[in-house]
Amino acid sequence: MNIAIVILNWNGKSLLEQFLPSVVKYSKEAKVYVADNASTDNSISFIKANYPNVTILENAKNGGYAKGYNDALKQVKEPIYCLLNSDIEVTENWLKPIEEEFSNEENTAIIQPKILDYKKKSHFEYAGAAGGFVDALGYPYCRGRIFNTIEVDENQYKSDTVFWASGACLFIRKSVFNELNGFDESYFAHYEEIDLCWRAFNLGYITKYNQDSIVYHVGGATLNASNPKKTELNFRNSLFTLVKNVKGLLLLLVFIRLALDGVAGIKFLLEFKPKHTFAIIKAHFSFYIALPKLLKQRKSLQQKKGYYGLKSVVYSYFIQKKRFFNQF
């Protein structure tokens, strides 16, 4: 077997009950693992009783997405990893196009399938859609999803090179994952896949989107968008990623980003969401504390020009009122 499907779980028995059957049914050519982040529910006993062919990897503690995968993948021998969220339904023959692309394209290191919305299957799903990009300031966006505008899937986005793949369903060569030293564990959760793909890009590797492999994602099953902790992690980790990976006028870029974050904080206040404003403030303080370490990491990493698509997705979306990727 060439592909290891590794599902990270933390107290997610109900999600495993709902979504593991499709993974087992349609992944006969792969080995399926569940990496458990020290769950306190009966997830493990459920898997042992109902899916004896699924291998359980037990982590000593809940280190979040980044550490959870880093720890678990050390025990996986297959040459291709599929990092799969526990709230994803896969489809028949979803692995074949991925395996073919890895076989035919040696420099392709990371692949993302088409990610559609489990609750509204005609539409793309927020987390990844048809593959991601970043603008000149490091703001992420996707083909099929710009901010909160979600497109109907009409096969308008073909298989192609993208900048980042969603951590909801991400295939990566084991050799590349190890070369990158895995995820940055300081992220805990959110943005770590963008950082991983950016570091891969800076080393000359290619990330692809494959339209022929389709999965359906619930999204927000672990930490939904209304949770201030998610806001904090997204804002903080976005700044982490920018400092580590961007090639350019770093000081100016960070200053602009901090100012725009302030605008976002005011917007949350006007929307009567003060907890999210406070989350941005916490994110900035965490960033300042981490800055010496980030600058040290930056020196040890390689940066490369040509990383961004748009100059400003914020300007295009909010000022020019462009809502869809193919309008850019």
Describe this structure in words.
With 328 residues, the chain is α/β, with parallel strands linked by helices. It has two domains: 3-217, Spore Coat Polysaccharide Biosynthesis Protein SpsA, Chain A; 228-314, no CATH class. It has ten helices and 14 strands. Strands 1, 2, 3, 4, 5, 6, 7, 12, 13 and 14 form a ten-stranded mixed β-sheet that branches. A two-stranded antiparallel ribbon has the order 8-9. Strand 8 (132-134) and strand 9 (140-142) form a beta hairpin. It is globular and about 55 Å long. The mean pLDDT is 96.
Q: Briefly, what is this?
A:
The chain has 328 residues and is of the alpha/beta class. The chain has helices at 13-25, 43-50, 64-73, 96-104, 174-179, 192-202, 228-245, 250-270, 274-300, 313-319; strands at 3-9, 30-36, 55-58, 80-84, 88-90, 108-117, 120-124, 132-134, 140-142, 145-146, 149-150, 160-162, 169-173, 206-217. The model has no long low-confidence stretch (mean pLDDT 96).
